[in-house]
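QUALITY CONTROL LOG
STEP: pairwise intake check
CHECKER ROLE: data steward
CRITERIA: each record must contain a sequence immediately followed by its structure tokens, with no blank fields

ENTRY 1 OF 2
RESULT FIELD BELOW
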Amino acid sequence: MKQRVPVSQIMAKVLIAVPSTKKISEVNQLFADYNIRHIPVVESEKLIGIISVNDILKIGYSNADMDKDALNDIYDAYKLEDIMTKNPLVVTEDTIIKEVAELFSKQRFHSLPITDKAGKLVGIVTTTDLINYLIAQY
């Protein structure tokens, strides 16, 4: 296996990011449209949080048998800032993949936003990205 490979080699560089003012129903639709599970939340290109499919499921789970419009009304009773993870752990684009794997193995999350040295959001890496990288090594 290759040693000291930076996470920039496996991170998603084309990002879907949303402002904190975005409606939860709209964020939920982005998850469906792009088949993704994590979206960074930004204000003026600065990362302020991250939202996951699971965060949204938690507020609508008991009402999952409702029609889409009624469920969207429940989602939109919340603000994105109420359910997102604020100030998430981030890594820089030169963090090595092994360190990212260690973070995933010790934490309860499945994605990490990636910033450049100036702190600008430049990517995201998920456990799926990591698994695909490991599979490609064999």
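ENTRY 2 OF 2
RESULT FIELD BELOW
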Amino acid sequence: MLAAVLGACAPRGDFGRPAPSVIGDRILPFAGRAFAQTRDEPASWSILTEDERELRARAYRFLMPAHEWQVSDRILADLIRHRVTPAPLRLGQRRSYWDALIFSQGVSPAPLFRRIAQDAEQDRALIPLVREVAERVLAADEARLRFLLHVQVLVESQAEQAALRVAENRCLIAWVRSEARERALRYRYALERLAIEAPQRSAIEPERALAALDATIPTLDTLPVGELGACAEAIRTPHHRLTPASAAASPRPEAPSIPARDAPPPEGVMLFKR
């Protein structure tokens, strides 16, 4: 718990990513994989690719509470993000952002309107970056699964770890997309409460920022990862005996499908040099 408190209170990095730290980069991820494994959730011990690391860093902003004054929520969210504790389908109440906003900024409405606009705009700006790295990760996952079919001597544990990593990636992308939607609803809740209490022209800026955010979030819907609810339901199913055959029989995003052995490699990917 002390590690979670220290991790949640650590300064945030640039562009919505967490600041580097031993706790956040080593201790909590290791503990999270171990705890997830005991719950029979997809937990791969394989090394992360650079894009997989970047995806997890980009996910940070969307998986943590939007306001820094949501201290208790941030501690719990960090434990959930690292999978030390099981992930609920929704963390906190929709009004939690509004409560933190009012508590931190006092009684003047102008800075409150500005903060809502800034948070919404920063989310909007990050979504294309999340989508870009998510597309690269999904493409690499497809190549990884195809590569399994061409390995001359395949250890079953290696196939299992690959399938589990693909499941982790898909569930993470579905989770980020779900939280992006929820954050927009929390901003909307705060803006409506504030406009009722202090109607003024300052509400125009956050309204425009929220409209832009609402228009950007659907660009994540085309990512082929399914919905968060299906993923959350699937992680209750034991994965410790996952094999290429069982992976092929399971739906996305929880367990990946493995192509037929005569399937060609992905376009632009060379599996072996000839």
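INTAKE CHECK: passed for both entries
DESCRIPTIVE NOTE, ENTRY 2: DSSP finds ten helices and no strands in the chain.
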